[in-house]
Every structure is written in structure tokens, then in C-alpha cells.
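Morning F.,

Quick status update on the modeling queue. The single chain you submitted on Monday has been processed. Sequence for confirmation:
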Amino acid sequence: MTTSFDQWHGRRTTDSGWRETSRRNARSVQTTIGWIFWDPGAVARYGALGLPGPLGYIASRGAPLAPAGAEALTAAFGSISSVGIALTFDLLKGDAAAFRDFWQARDEAVSEGLRRYAPGIVDPLVETGPALWSAVDRLPRLGRVLFGATVSMPRPRDPLLSGWHAVNAIREWRGDTHWALLAAAGLTSSEASIVHNGWLGYEDGWLSRSRGQTETEIDEGWDGLTRKGLAAERRLLPEALLLRQRLEDATDELTVLPWQLLGSGFSVGFAERLEPACELLLARVDETAGPNYQPASRVRERYRGSEESAGN
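C-alpha cells below.
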């Protein structure tokens, strides 16, 4: 007998206070890391190494999994264009050492950029880094492949970069958890992007194209959602948006562990110390990429729809 996502989700019993802590700190975790994806300092370094910015992002973030190949990285990245990932591997000839050059280039850009654009984050990252690593080392690896590969990388000696990488590890742990939930819900990469785009309220196709998905992949995503009863005539049905909200809620529930390990006082202090600097980093994203980018850093109301009828 199979268990539906709704039945499984209904059995979750995580305390709501920890869920809120997980949700709140996820914004700072995402923002502390995500601004670098479009940072001109990082993009210039990637160009000097032979790749344009989007492919440089793939190489820098994917360096821990590069030895496993393009298919493994496509599976781990979830919604990032498989075409872009394959091209990155082709241009770097699958050389894991070349991927690590991009990892190092990103580190250089992170160190430079944080001090320049959000200096208020430096001391909090330096001071919380050791405790964050202690929590990271106790997080379960099972099913979290990108996280596992990421924490196997050498840890920086520089205290600022060390703290940043500890936050990055928590981010990848949450990301792996989120993609496991989407896979369990039966969504493909292109379907997930379409549903996420609708949940965000973005114009049709924006998120999919921003992640490099082709028009063919987008069409396949709509076809799949229609077969699953989540879309009709290339419009999402309320059930799709409610499913996406439930997946987000489940992600918050299943990623409370780092904060529980760190304790309530630490977790609240982490939020209060990082949020002001993260607002500056988010403004940097607005400037370098645009206000639609990095949606996980942006506050939005929960989608409620007709939860009572949809849940029955």
C-alpha cells in the first residue's frame, strides 16, 4: 500500500516554533550564499578561467561532485539546465581540477565581496563558524549527495570563508532535502520549475528560462503537469499551487535539525545578527541580476487556496 504525499505530510509533528526558526533562517542562509551567483567579481574571475558567468556558477558550485560526472550533477542541481551542465563539463573536459579552480575563484570573490558590500556580516560569520561546523558535522548524510560532497571539500583556514562555507553546507543540506521532497511528490525538473514559477507569481516561463531550461523542456513540463491533473491549457490549477506550498512547509519541517543542534538562543541570535547584512546582499542581487532572482530570500505570504477542500 502506498502512502500519498498528503498522508505522509499530515503525520509530521515538528514543533511550530522550530519550523518558524527553520523558515526564518533559511532566508539568511540563502542570501549569505546566493548573492555570489551574479557578483561581477565572481563573473570576471570565471571569465578569466574560460567560462561565462552562468557556466562558471555551475563549475564553482558543482566542483565537489565534478568527479562523478555531468549526470550526477544534473540530478543534484535539480532544476538547473542539463544542457548548461553538459556544456560546462565539455568545456572543462571533465577535469575535476579545473572545477576546483572555479571553486577557489568563487572563494576569492566571496571574501572580497562580503567585506565590500556587507561588512556587517564579517564578524558574525567569523564568530559563529565553529559552532555552525559542529552542527554540520552532526547532520545526516543519507540521501543528501551534494551536501555530502560539499562537506568533503577542504575547509578554508580563513575564518570568514570558513564561516561562509559552514552556512553553504547548511544550504546544500536543505536543498538536497527539498529536492528529495519534490521527487517524492513525482515532479520532474521542468514541472517543478513551472509550479514554483506559478507559486511565486512570476510571468509565465520566467523561472524555467532563468535556469536555462529549453522550450522543449518547458513544453514537456506542461504536458506532464496536465497528465497529473495539476494544469489545464498551460495554466496551473489551484492543486498545483497548494502542493508547492505544502512542499515548502515540509522542507521547513524537515530542516529544523541544524537549528535544534545549535539551540534556540544561538538560532535567534544568528537571525538577528545576519539579517541586516543580508538585506544589503539581497539589494546587491537586485542590482546585479534583478528583483526576480533569488526568490528564496524574499518574503511572501503562504499560499492557502481552498486547503480544506483540496486536502480531502
